[in-house]
């Protein structure tokens, strides 16, 4: 299989590349990444001598580049995206560029140059908005709350339109909150681990009662693998592990694992439009494709905590050392 992975220097994309190379000897991967803030070349530095893997720096919104990239591929998996909600509130324009124009560029390239290639769009549960009771299915209406989720929803609609109108072999996955190795330190779980490790305050939005459904990143990657290999054209597949936890529970659990005092928790002003609860029904992918998560929440979270404790050389270049001695959280951009 000749596989184009976009955004493969990011958290989920880099884990997916590792999974595919480990599980498929005949898989050759071209990873294209624009090297934005969430990208990290060190995520895949150990693959530089693997002849089945190659890297190209580039922006998928560049239509000429996208056309060249897709011509000889059997499949494309699009992880490339701006993903941080807080950033989308302060600067929505970059999200429109990557998450809408970038998707359109890939779809047009496939339409004109490789219409038989399979295309998997990696989306998010946030396109549905929040839900106080029950769980969203693939047929649920989209009601995004942030510029980030709005841009992802727009990209999804383009994918479905191109599958229907032009017959592209395109599919969408929508997953819940991921955690695991190589996640950018501004995200909740690595931020908690790193700040607790350094003896800093742990900021929690509002009351900390916002609920997210958590999934270990490699379980998510196995689900994407199944959709890539066996998913049906024009279909959406929700991916979830059924591990719904409040943000405050996550913080307290990690502090307990690290033997830290809960007095380090600091409640801060809630962010605008903060969704109360996300919940996905993933029975479709379980029944149709036979996917199941392998790791329990406690087991995978412990593995994640240990990985960050053992890999400070990975995250320290992303964190301003002077800020580690202060309460506010800030990264080098």
Give an account of the 3D structure:
Helix content is 38%, strand content 17%. It contains eleven helices and twelve strands. The protein has helices spanning 11-23, 63-70, 85-90, 93-113, 147-166, 188-197, 217-230, 247-257, 283-289, 297-310, 312-315; strands at residues 2-6, 28-33, 53-57, 75-78, 118-124, 169-175, 177-179, 202-205, 211-216, 236-239, 244-246, 265-268. It has a seven-stranded parallel β-sheet with strand order 3-2-1-4-5-6-10, sandwiched between helices. Strands 7-9-11 form a three-stranded mixed β-sheet. Helix 2 packs across helix 4. The model is unreliable at 325-333 (pLDDT under 50).
| Sheet with the most strands, sense and barrel status | 7 strands, parallel
CATH architecture of the largest domain: 3-Layer(aba) Sandwich
Q: At the third CATH level, what is the topology name of the largest domain?
A: Rossmann fold
Strand order of the largest sheet: 3-2-1-4-5-6-10
The CATH fourth-level homologous superfamily of the largest domain: NAD(P)-binding Rossmann-like Domain
CATH class of the largest domain: Alpha Beta
Strand content: 15-25%
Poorly predicted regions? 325-333
First-to-last CA distance: 36 Å
Look at the helices and sheets and give the structural class: alpha/beta
């Amino acid at each position: 299989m000749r596989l184009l992975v976009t955004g493969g220097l990011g958290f989920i994309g880099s884990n997916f590349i590792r999974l595919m190379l480990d599980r498929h000897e005949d898989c050759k991967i071209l990873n294209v990444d624009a090297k934005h803030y969430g990208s990290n070349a060190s995520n895949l530095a150990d693959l530089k001598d693997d002849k089945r893997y190659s890297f190209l720096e580039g922006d998928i919104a560049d239509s000429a580049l996208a056309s060249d990239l897709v011509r000889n591929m059997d499949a494309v998996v699009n992880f490339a995206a701006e993903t941080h909600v807080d950033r989308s509130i302060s600067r929505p324009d970059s999200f429109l560029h990557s998450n809408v124009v970038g998707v359109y560029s890939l779809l047009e390239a496939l339409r004109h140059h490789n219409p038989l290639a399979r295309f998997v769009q990696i989306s998010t549960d946030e396109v549905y908005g929040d839900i106080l009771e029950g769980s969203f299915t693939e047929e649920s209406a989209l009601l995004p709350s942030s510029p980030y989720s709005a841009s992802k929803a727009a990209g999804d609609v383009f994918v479905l339109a191109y599958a229907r109108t032009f017959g592209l072999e395109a599919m969408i996955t929508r997953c819940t909150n991921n955690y695991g190795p190589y996640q950018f330190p501004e995200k909740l779980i690595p931020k908690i681990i790193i700040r607790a490790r350094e003896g800093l305050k742990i900021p929690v939005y509002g009351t900390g009662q916002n609920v997210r459904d958590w999934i270990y990143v490699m379980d998510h990657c196995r689900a994407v693998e199944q959709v890539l290999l066996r998913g049906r054209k024009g279909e959406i597949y929700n991916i979830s592990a059924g591990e719904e936890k409040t943000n405050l529970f996550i913080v307290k659990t990690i502090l307990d694992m690290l033997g830290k005092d809960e007095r380090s928790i600091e409640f801060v002003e809630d962010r605008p439009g903060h969704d109360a609860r996300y919940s996905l029904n993933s029975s479709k992918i379980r029944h149709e494709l036979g996917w199941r998560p392998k790791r329990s929440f406690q087991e995978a979270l412990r593995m994640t905590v240990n990985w960050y404790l053992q890999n400070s050389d990975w995250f320290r270049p992303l964190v301003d050392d002077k800020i580690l001695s202060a309460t506010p959280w800030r990264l080098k951009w």
